[in-house]
Amino acid sequence: MTGDRIRALLRAQPFQPFTLGLADRHQVRVPRADWAMVSPDGQTMVMFDAANSFHMVNVSDVASVLLEPPPPEPDAIVRH
Question: CATH code for 3-68?
Fold first, then answer.
């Protein structure tokens, strides 16, 4: 995995939440694009979670990416 590939996932429109599978078998979920960033050199990723804690990941440790379906557009939500 490269920093540029992760940046592309974070910039995708519409954004699709994704989970990173790490080499040590841990998983890190990225539910929103604005909760994560890749360092300028592309070697480190920092992600925040709902508890406002942060996680740092070496991009070279990312073994897989699992994309989730994008969230529905606000206009597509049907209310009864």
Answer: 2.30.30.100
